Amino acid sequence: MHDIVIRGGSILDGTGTTARTADIAVRDGRIVDVGTVDGRGRAEIDAHGALVTPGWVDIHTHYDAQATWDSGLTPTGYHGVTTLVIGNCGVGFAPAKPDRHQWLIELMEGVEDIPGSALADGIQWEWESFPEYLDALALRRWVADVGAQVPHAAVRGYVMGDRSADGNDATEQDLVDMTAIVHDALKAGALGFSTSRTPLHKSVHGDLVPGTSAEPSEVIAISDAIKRAGHGVFQCALHHPDVPREMWWLKEIARKTGGYASFNFNISDMAPDLWRDMLLALDEAHAEGCRVVGQVAGRPVGILQCWDGTVNPFLGRPTYEALSALPHAERLQRLAQPQTRARILAEQAENPTGLMRFLCSSYHRMWRFGGESDYEPAADDSLAAVAARQGCDPAALAYDHLNSNGGKGLLYFPFLNYAAGDLAPLYEMHRHPHTRMGLADGGAHCGTICDASMPTFMLSFWGRDRLRGPKLDLAEIVRRQTSETAALYGLNDRGRIAPGLRADINVIDYQKLSLEAPHMVWDLPSGAPRFMQRPKGYLATVCAGEVTVRDDEFTGALPGRLVRGAR
Q1: By the 8 A CB rule, do 528 and 522 touch?
Q2: How many domains does the chain have?
Q3: If I label 255, which of 15, 27, 206, 332 is the partner at 20 to 30 A Cα–Cα?
Q4: Residues 275 and 347 both lie in one domain
């Protein structure tokens, strides 16, 4: 008797090979047979006509705090993810001296747009050191496994205190102390070390993340901890136009540690064609024996603008700002009034920053958002283009759309990865052997971005629905977010459907696979808001041999555990 038998599914096993029809038998959390299974299962899943894949391994999330209170790891947990990695981009909550708690909260709030009130109410601070943080996570249970990286900013703050502020160099003793902390974290089970070097990452007070402009010698020195521990990925958020001049030390870290150095590989409007050069640079790095890889998103890093979100085109306009303190329903009611509309449209924002001015007034980069096809919008459909054809003000179009659907209308602003006006560059980047699927950012950017759904989007959009260019091979899509991402972090016990491996499996009604429209929910601690986007089409998700999702709903099973170190 098996625990589970999945019958007659079309299996894409995570290796990139073509699909085959077979049964899968599961016992004691492992796959024990793939083929024709004669024995029965205590649970039987009919997968005839369905797609069967390994569970997704999402290597770029920010559930560092949420993992301490949310067993569903939502929205990522709805999307077939059976393993996820936290601690990206150099920010997190350990190590943490008691007097640095608020500082770490304000850093995460500014960098990742996670409401500080939710973090303050939700985190119980059961730790000081990073090993103690892992011990606290080890007490939790989730729908998916969780692996953690140790963040540079927290380490710098712990060792250097107020001197950790960006612009201050670390002393030799600081480097010794930081390296020791990272080494202890890796030996305790951290999967890697992360840092940030982009000016986009700032605290709520506008301060750069500690270490943003640190000398490369600092992170090279700290990477010695990876070498001594014998495992660990070096992960880095870079300023996109600066990647070419940062490549030398990324290669040095990869060469020194013998492991992977991974950077966030996006396309900025400031350097729209640089991605081609970077693909060549990745080829050169690997030819030199340096395992440097670029993490690539599945779609634009898209700012969602709405009345309840962090950004909309009318921020800074006096009449709009005067409504911000009103109760939610009354605020939407006032925004729908013609006299309020007229006043706001007649005003200008007061003292907007350069970035906010760009986000709030670039109507040629703003689209009315309705569904999945709108992730690759055409230039002729932008608010600027529509307004030009109709002879009206694009701001008025924006305002009226935000008021649609009872004040829940969404505008889409593809901030990164859309300089070309389509997704052709991302198509090429995903086909390159030295890029990896990533940057879904689950748990982060609660009021601006909802890309935790990216694992589902990869299948539905790139494998089936794309209209404006070629699709990606479905078997390769599966491989990129299973065996490839698992292997990057040394998690070689998962990411494929084969006897002996962990029973992490998705059963998907591929023809019905889709995403609901992003919408705002108020379910964070303190009642803070965040975007939510759930899928339709997951008949079942199995994690470590237990069914966690049936027909797109959680079953209540929580087999997810902390992953300590490579497998």
Answers
A1: yes
A2: 2
A3: 15
A4: no
Bridge partners of 197, per DSSP, are: 238
Q: Are strands 292-296 and 2-11 parallel, antiparallel or unpaired?
A: unpaired
- The residues near 312 (Cβ < 8 Å, ≥ 6 apart) are 305, 306, 360, 398, 402, 411
- Residue 337's pLDDT is 98
- How does DSSP assign 278-336, residue by residue? HHHHHHHHHHTT--EEEEE-SS-EEEEE-TTSS--TTTT-HHHHHTTTS-HHHHHHHHT
Cα(313)–Cα(305) distance, integer angstroms = 8
In terms of domains, do 260 and 131 share one? yes
- 238-265 b/e (C-beta count within 10 Å ≥ 16 → b): bbbebbeeebebbbbbbebbebbbbbbb
Nearest of 554, 556, 545 to residue 41 by alpha carbon = 545
Q: Return the structure tokens found at 426.
A: 């991302």
* 238 shares its domain with 195: yes
25 pLDDT exceeds 90?
yes
Token reading at 103: 């500082």
| d(C-alpha 446, C-alpha 530), whole Å | 4
Task: Outline where DSSP puts E strands in 87-200.
Answer: 145-151, 192-197
294 and 335: one domain?
no
The Cβ of residue 77 has, within 10 Å, a number of other Cβ atoms equal to: 25
Total-model pTM = 0.97
> Domain for residue 536, yes or no?
no
The gap from C-alpha 310 to its chain's centroid, in whole angstroms, comes to 18
Rg of the chain over CA atoms, in angstroms? 23
**Token digits for 478?**
């599966």
Q: CB-based burial of residue 97 (10 Å sphere; 0-12 exposed, 13-18 middle, 19+ buried)?
A: middle
| CATH label of the domain that carries residue 279 | 3.20.20.140
Outline where DSSP puts E strands in 12-118.
Answer: 20-27, 30-35, 41-46, 51-54, 56-58, 81-86
Give the end of a domain, one of 438, 454, 478: 478
User: Is the bond preceding residue 327 a cis peptide, omega within 30 degrees?
Assistant: no
Tokens read off for 271: 């350097």
Average pLDDT, the chain: 97
By C-alpha distance, which of 462, 416, 408 is closest to 439?
A: 416
Bridge-partner residues for 56, per DSSP?
81
Closest CA to 540 of 20, 2, 6: 6
Phi, psi of 56 (to 5 degrees): -70, 145
Residues constituting the chain: 567
Q: Do 14 and 482 touch, CB atoms closer than 8 A? A: yes
Distance CA 319, CA 322 (A): 5
What pLDDT, in 10s, does the model give residues 213-270? 999 999 999 999 999 999 999 999 999 999 999 999 999 999 999 999 999 999 999 9
- If asked whether residues 169 and 295 sit together in one domain, one would say yes
Which residue bears the tokens 């924002």?
349
Domain region containing 328: 304-414
Q: How far apart (Å, rounded) are the C-alpha atoms in residues 318 and 329?
A: 20
| Domain final position from 428, 460, 478 | 478
Same domain, 146 and 285: yes
